[in-house]
Hints:
Structural class: mainly alpha
Distance between the termini: 21 Å
Oligomer: single chain
Shape: extended
Strand content: under 5%
Radius of gyration: 19 Å
Number of domains: 1
Helix content: over 70%
Amino acid sequence: MLLIVYDGWAALKPFDVVLVIVGPVVAICTTHIFSNSLVQLVALGQTADDARVARHARFESRFLLLAVPPLAVLLVLHLANVALTDAIRVVIWLEAALAHLLGRTGSSKLSLLRQLHALSVLAGLVISGRVLLHQVILELAEGTC
C-alpha cells in the first residue's frame, strides 16, 4: 500500500504504471500457489505434483481479476487525455474508496456489533491516513509541498 508514496510517478510511462498495478497481484497469486505447496508438504506429508499445482494455480488465478478495475480506470483516463500523474491519483483514491466500501460492507454482512463495525471503519481510516502521512512527510523532506 505504500507504493502510492512513490515519488517517480511523473517519470513513468503508461506501461510502467500497468506493471506497478499488475506486479503485486501476480506476486500475491504466486505466493498463494507456493504456500499451498508448502501446506501440502508439511501438513499432509505429500509433495505437490504438477497436476495439483496446476489445479491450485487455476484456482488462485481468479485473484488476477483484482488488477482489472484500476487498469480499466487508467485506460479510460488515458483515452480521455488525462495526465498520467492525475490518472494515478484518481486510481489511488478510487482504490482507497473501494477498500473502505468493501470493508464496511463486509463488516455489516458479518453482522458485527455496531462498536466492532465502527472500529473496523476507524482502522481503515487510520491505515489510509498513515499512508497519506507518509506521502506528506516525503514531500516535505524534498521541499515539494
